[in-house]
Design a protein that fits this description.
Length: 364
């Protein structure tokens, strides 16, 4: 009797699992502008799961239905882009991904995937892949294919369709000055410094790279190598065996993280003397030393001031770029809605479930 009960339980469990899987694969709609694409419960659920992870709460059935409509609209836009011959290469998607991540982390340049991995490993003791998974609920490849690629393509499509109008959109002098007055407290430059950094990658020879950095430091102290010479040689690390560049650092925690040190350590660096080389430092993948070249005190920036020492871009020019970009994005969003309205019709979208039937399916 016990064997029968266990066998029955296993059989029922298999039936329930198969039913649940079939429910996930159920088609909610078919998009058919140029291709035929189904929107399934699983596709909606996968995106909703990511949204709920970010929101840290469960979405209501109606919010999930909004996500479902967004998926339909995205498929329509992407099919229209495909019809117009708009594509994105793997290299372009990779670069857009790295740019996006670097901006989100407030880095002062676009980091490579290896540099991002080193940065995250140094500060959070986890791999970059683990960091992305933790933040998005998706793998790096999934983020690239499901978020970056579609976003890149539909933006290119909208720009290609409205190029002439976009070039005529620009911030006015009044808009720029009004923006500055409304956000004046944000335009500050914390205590800053200019640092010259030399780094020898360890690669597969940590001991040899240590000898290399020691030789560079010795040559600098003895006057055999100047900063200008190392700066030039460091631009071609394959030939010279090391990298060298100027860094501008502010007295903020984000820049401490970028340098791979604690905020307390960054504060101590600000107290060091100019033109005096540091000791050799070890990071996860390199040996380094640095020289402080200049220091700049805190400054509340006027609209005509440059954003950063030794740069030529002023606050006014920065705001002009921000406001112009914002106006262009608003225009593109308006055009996107117009395209969606023209395509999201019964001719191009067949909805299998609507109203209460749809909300019931989205109430998992």
């Amino acid at each position: 009797m016990k064997r029968l009960a266990i066998g029955t339980f296993v059989a029922l469990a298999g039936i329930f699992a198969a039913t649940a899987q079939a429910s996930l694969l159920q088609t909610l709609a078919v998009v058919k502008y140029t291709d035929t694409e189904a929107v399934t419960v699983k596709e909606v659920k996968d995106i909703v799961d990511t949204q709920e992870k970010e929101a840290k709460r469960k979405l209501t059935p109606q919010e999930r239905a909004d996500t479902y409509e967004t998926i339909i609209n995205q498929k329509l836009i992407l099919q229209a882009a495909k019809k117009a011959g708009i594509t994105a290469t793997s290299t372009e998607i990779d670069q857009a991904f790295l740019t996006n991540i670097s901006q989100q982390l407030n880095l002062n340049r676009v980091y490579s995937e290896k540099e991002l991995n080193d940065l995250v490993m140094s500060n959070q003791k986890k791999s970059f892949a683990e960091f992305v998974k933790e933040q998005t609920g998706m793998s790096i490849d999934e983020v690239k294919n499901q978020i970056i690629r579609p976003d890149l393509i539909w933006r290119r499509y909208l720009i290609s369709q409205n190029q002439q109008d976009l070039t005529s959109i620009a911030a006015t002098d009044k808009e720029i000055r009004d923006y500055y007055e409304l956000n004046k407290t944000q335009f500050i430059r914390p205590d800053s410094l200019k640092m010259f950094l030399v780094a020898v990658p360890k690669e597969n020879d940590p001991a040899g790279s240590r000898v290399k950095i020691e030789g560079l430091l010795k040559d600098f102290k003895n006057g055999k190598k100047s900063i200008d010479q190392m700066r030039r040689e460091g631009q071609d690390p394959k030939s010279s065996g090391y990298g060298a560049a100027d860094l501008f650092l502010m007295k903020v925690e984000q820049h401490a993280a970028q340098l791979g040190v604690s905020y307390e350590r960054l504060l101590s660096i600000f107290k060091e003397d100019l033109n005096k080389p540091s000791e050799i430092l070890e990071t996860g993948n390199a040996w380094e030393f640095y020289v402080l070249l200049d220091k700049y005190p805190f400054k509340a920036l006027e609209i005509s001031d440059v954003i950063r020492p030794e740069s030529t871009q002023t606050v006014y020019e920065t705001i002009r770029s921000l406001v112009t970009q914002s106006k262009q994005l608003q225009y593109l969003e308006q055009k996107r809605q117009e395209i969606i309205k023209s395509l999201n019709t019964p001719e191009y979208v067949t909805r299998k479930k609507t109203g209460d039937d749809l909300l019931k399916l989205l109430s998992w």
